[in-house]
Amino acid sequence: MGGQREEPENESGLTVLLAFLANLGIALAKIVAALITGSASMAAEAAHSVADTFNEILLMVGLRRSGRPADRRHPFGYGKERYIWTLLVAVAIFGMGALFSYYQGFETLIGARSGAESDPLVGYIVLAVAFVLEGISWQQALRQTRAAAREESLPFLAYIRRTDEPTAISVLLEDSAALVGLLLAFGGLGLHQATGSAVWDGIGSVLIGVLLTVVALVLGRINLNLLIGNQADPRIVDDVRARLYAAPEVEWVVDIITMTVGADRVLVCARLDFRDALTAADVERACVRMARELRDAHEEIDEVFLEPVPRDDPELRERVIARYGRTLRPKQEEA
To answer: Where in the cell is it found (predicted)?
Structure first.
């Protein structure tokens, strides 16, 4: 199981490292170009790239710290720490990138400067080089995300909504925003040169700010759900329920609770009504066997807790109905 998880970890590390190197070079080039041209949209893009470079460092820290093994103080491991660092990335995208872009844009629009920019050719060259470098990083992130979606047998967008591994998604969203932002900066720079009005440059900067705000909100929402505690993939939940119902010792599955506790790590808790003829030893052996079978069937399942309970307990029934709107039933009965 550990070896199977190591490969995506290494792939995520490569994706983040490649994005870091690309963004570092791009940020330095954009800063120089912004100083030379005086372009607001170029300055906004420079801030964007500085934020992205800082974000890759956060992602690398998150990858490293979330991989630590479980210990006495953290019996379920440190997997969720990755989501905290990725949430910080969303905050940084907005705080370091979007807000600076808004400031540059509105300052230019209010000032309504006119006149040609100094040496806009430098800006065009930097934007072109940045587009190539961002494209390389974007292709790596897209390739990893598509491969993961295929492995999970999910459509691309469905995988992004359901994934418990947000690192590659973060890089993909950052790089996608960077490519669109470069086009906006190119448009603002070009229209400023063509018309002699800085208004277009300011509009380009504001639009970059809007773009980064959207990316920050999407990324923040993904990680917020994971931090709160998402249910496992519905396909895993359905299969767990079917396997528990199929066990000869089980009379009824009263309740199932699953939670994502890290990348490819799922906690399963189930309350089961066992057949009355079973002895305590029979129930103990059945619980051990079923837990092992569930972990063998799904490598994502890390811990399994099975609790014997009476099926007709009114308090349990109310709790299940409050959570699901109904009592749990075998899959074939629901169909």
So the answer is: Membrane
